[in-house]
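To the wet lab folks,

You asked to see what we're planning to order before we commit. Fair enough. Below is the target structure as tokens, and below that is the sequence we designed to fit it. If anything looks off to you, flag it before the synthesis order goes out.
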């Protein structure tokens, strides 16, 4: 039952492929409990308001673009351009996937009161981003990365909301997300209210700061391979191999410090890769959001790299310049898979 949908979803790629992970994670976890029956856990909305300071606007724009890359899911781009260029106004939304009885829409998050979120309160937007509950109390399909975003600090959340609120209104009437019955109930178990203050990220060391940036940048959603049941494979964190279906033949890279990963990188090369979208002469596919990440500050990129240096080195050859072959380690077909 649910798995047929998951298979269908398997054909969507890039950002869309994240859908798989969450559906599967939900369908297979034993902690599903009673939520599918009694509905999601959620907290009531408060009347809090985030003061729109210039500093928050600046920080919010930086987070939305460079760090958390919201827009590939919430705007239309010409992905064939290098780098991709916006086709319409930012935040106007897009249909991410549509097939059979299922449709996943990255909604209009501009200030348009009718087709966007212009009428939502600050706290409603904040709750949607970190806790996965829409203004009307419904559960957001977890392709919206709220499971990562729940770790966003309170002050960063305020900045992000201030920036999102400032997006010029775009009137774009998109169809609604449509999820078949079983999955629509299963996802009720995903949202978890954030009831404790989330402190500022620990920037006392580049590694700790980098861990925060990697979480907000959702690196693991693409770079950690998943098994046949779309569960992240334990012991293969950030080891790559996950195939991006929207970009045929493109698998996410092994970004662990192993020799088969990015062990040979130094900080300068990492920064150059993100800033240029090329690893020396080899160009990176647009699915990798280097074209948004390249606006990260030097310090933030250095922290991100410092963190990547600390993850477990894992041997897993992945090379998109080679023809895809079956890989025993991750179960996917990717370049050099037969050498693992
Ligand atoms: C991987 C794709 C993806 C990314 C990245 C993403 N979103 Fe979303 N977002 C979605 C989808 C899909 C939905 C709608 C889910 C549904 O309809 O059930 C959504 C819903 C929302 C909503 C609720 C809007 C409504 O009308 O229901 C808000 C607000 C939102 N996202 C803001 C953001 C912000 C801010 C960021 C970046 C910090 C972001 N999103 C990043 C996919 C994404
Ligand atoms: C939406 C999916 C996606 C997300 C999110 C993502 N990546 Fe990637 N990344 C890819 C893909 C796919 C490739 C391989 C591209 C290619 O070979 O053309 C890649 C390649 C890379 C490379 C180049 C490795 C090499 O030498 O070949 C680095 C470095 C990298 N990613 C780091 C990161 C970091 C750090 C994050 C999080 C901040 C991140 N990526 C988030 C999909 C993603």
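Sequence we intend to order:
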């Amino acid at each position: 039952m649910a798995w047929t949908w998951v298979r269908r979803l398997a054909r969507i790629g890039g950002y869309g492929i994240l859908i798989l992970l969450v559906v599967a994670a939900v369908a297979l976890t034993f902690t599903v409990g009673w939520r599918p029956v009694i509905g999601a856990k959620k907290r009531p909305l408060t009347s809090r308001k985030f003061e729109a300071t210039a500093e928050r606007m600046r920080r919010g724009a930086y987070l939305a673009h460079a760090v958390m890359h919201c827009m590939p899911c919430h705007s239309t781009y010409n992905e064939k351009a290098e780098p991709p260029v916006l086709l319409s106004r930012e935040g106007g939304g897009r249909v991410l996937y549509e097939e059979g009885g299922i449709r996943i829409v990255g909604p209009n998050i501009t200030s348009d009161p009718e087709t966007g979120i212009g009428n939502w309160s600050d706290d409603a937007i904040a709750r949607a981003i970190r806790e996965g509950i829409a203004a009307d109390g419904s559960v957001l399909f977890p392709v919206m990365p709220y499971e990562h975003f729940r770790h966003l600090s309170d002050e960063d959340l305020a900045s992000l909301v201030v920036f999102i609120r400032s997006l010029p209104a775009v009137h774009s009437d998109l169809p609604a997300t449509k999820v078949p019955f079983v999955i629509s109930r299963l996802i009720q178990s995903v949202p978890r209210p954030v009831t404790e203050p989330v402190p500022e990220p620990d920037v006392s060391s580049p590694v700790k700061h980098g861990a925060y940036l990697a979480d907000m940048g959702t690196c693991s959603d693409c770079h950690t391979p998943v098994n046949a049941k779309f569960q992240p494979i334990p012991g293969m964190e950030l080891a790559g191999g996950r195939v991006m279906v929207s970009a045929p033949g493109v698998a996410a890279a092994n970004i662990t410090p192993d020799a088969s990963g990015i062990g040979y990188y130094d900080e300068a090369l990492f920064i150059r890769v993100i800033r240029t979208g090329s690893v020396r002469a080899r160009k990176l596919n647009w699915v990798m959001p280097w074209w948004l990440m390249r606006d990260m500050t030097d310090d933030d990129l250095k922290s991100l790299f410092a963190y990547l240096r600390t993850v477990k080195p894992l041997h897993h050859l992945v090379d998109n310049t080679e023809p895809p072959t079956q890989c025993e380690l991750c179960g996917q077909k990717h370049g050099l898979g037969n050498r693992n």
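Structural context that might help your review: Residues 1-17 have pLDDT under 50 and may be disordered. The pocket of heme C (ligand 2) is lined by residues 14-15, 214, 217-219, 221-223, 244, 250, 252-253, 255, 262, 273, 279, 284-285, 287-289, 304, 320 (CB under 6 Å).

Thanks,
Computational group
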